[in-house]
Amino acid sequence: MPSRRLAHRVRSRLIPRRPRLRSAETRLRIIEAALQAFGDAGFDGALTREIARAAGIQQPLINYHFGSKHGLWQAAVEHLFGRLEASVEEALPRLGSLDPRDALAEVLELFVHFNAEHPELARLMIKEATARGPRLEWIIERHVRPSFEAVLQLVRQAQRHGSLYGIEPASAYCLFMGAATSVFVMAPAFQLLTGNDPFSAERRAAHAAALVRLFLPERTARRDTAAVRVERRPN
Amino acid sequence: MPSRRLAHRVRSRLIPRRPRLRSAETRLRIIEAALQAFGDAGFDGALTREIARAAGIQQPLINYHFGSKHGLWQAAVEHLFGRLEASVEEALPRLGSLDPRDALAEVLELFVHFNAEHPELARLMIKEATARGPRLEWIIERHVRPSFEAVLQLVRQAQRHGSLYGIEPASAYCLFMGAATSVFVMAPAFQLLTGNDPFSAERRAAHAAALVRLFLPERTARRDTAAVRVERRPN
DNA sequence: GTCTATAATTAGATAGAC
DNA sequence: GTCTATCTAATTATAGAC
């Protein structure tokens, strides 16, 4: 039908369909839904159909935009680490001028707040980290190793100032990760056990303060720590 | 074929096939394989075929013994918590006579060593804890809540002696869990990042010592802590 | 109790219209 | 770019022989 093709060609010049914009919007909505799903249920537990439903599109669109479920997973991880890296970049200039121990405390707090805002990151990571495989190797080499090395440097500097005595830096990294993320990673379990929401502003602040107190006790007094409410519950 | 049936009946009386024993053995082998698989890949990622292969039996036997994949998961969790509870029972008499802070330190060390021996427990738990669902509710109410309450009691007692100041007990529980288990949970990632094995005897001991130092710094000097090797690596 | 064979279901991916 | 319809492959579960 040449006439129809012609009509289409004409219309396509008159009406700017901004295909890139719509595409980018759709991609983003899919990615947000995917992060939620992968974080909740892991790669195998997450269903592309469910992700599509949550994003308000049809399932084959995922393959159109990302090629495969694995491609979607990578794009989602990429997106989230991009946000984390942006947060760090933003804080970086401030950190340079600080005492290394204060810098470490700042990084800990930043990390706590990022995890409260985006619990998917640690959920997703930990689900891949329990067994070797292509996804783990990809995420480690592409995203984790740089921040790992940076934290090691910070820890070594803090240790030269007498903090974190006798803890191997790589162990300190794992301790940080575990202690900082666990409440948010297992928030549904925390909710079932205590009836409380770990994402509330007070609880985030208390959590960050507790972490700094644990890892850098000598820093606590010098910083304006958020009030810690020790709560009384019937049990 | 009546003659064959008769022969079978006769033979079955002469040769004691000890069916229960074989059954119990098989069940155990399936459960061990299942724990590994569920811990590595989560409920959805674990395949009953693979579990059967690892256990050296055929896949339908799983349904014969456990009814369903979900039944197998429950039996495996039950088995593992049984072991944990046995460890705790064993240590309990010793703990009663201790200062609550020392008792807490002992519990931390016991928990570290159990997790080093059975990383599946925390792997499995954390994979269910990220989203509400029937498996999470079952495991929380049946297995986690009792130990949660016990730890809260210990923390409150330790706080009355001045330890863990200003940390809400439920938060302390999460911090313990995260800090104690993370190296073992994400052992494959740790291995990729550092080239080291977190399960070695020295590393377990160092990890336990670091944890006690973090949470109960005043206890450290009084206890025979394992030597902590601060290791030097090229990077 | 354990096996072989297979049914039933459902996942991710593709084809093709619009 | 997005949709509908469908394919292919792989999973858990069942039937039935031994």
Keywords:
homodimer; 235 residues; mainly alpha
Q: Could you write a compact summary of the structure shown?
A:
Chain A is an all-alpha fold and 235 residues long. Chain A is 78% helix and 0% strand.
Can you put this structure into words, describing what you see?
The structure is a homodimer of 235-residue chains. Chain A is mostly helical and 235 residues long. Chain A has helices spanning 2-14, 19-45, 48-55, 60-66, 69-96, 100-117, 119-129, 134-160, 169-185, 187-194, 201-215, 217-220. In chain A, helix 5 (69-96) packs antiparallel against helix 6 (100-117). The interface between A and B is large, with 69 and 70 residues. Chain B binds a DNA duplex (18 and 18 nucleotides) through residues 8, 17, 19, 22-23, 26, 47-49, 57-65, 68-69.
The run of helices and strands of chain A is HHHHHHHHHHHH
The helix/strand class of chain A is: mainly alpha
- How helix-rich are the residues of chain A, as a percent range? over 70%
Strand fraction of chain A:
under 5%
**How many strands, which pairing sense, and closed or not: the largest β-sheet of chain A?**
none
Largest interface: A-B, 69 and 70 residues
Low-confidence residue ranges of chain A: 1-18, 225-235
Distance between the termini of chain A: 76 Å
Query: What is the number of helical segments of chain A per DSSP (H or I, 4+ residues)?
Result: 12
Q: What is the CA-atom radius of gyration of chain A, in angstroms? A: 22 Å
Task: State the oligomer.
Answer: homodimer
Characterize the overall form of chain A: globular
The overall average pLDDT of chain A, rounded, is: 89
Number of strands of chain A: 0
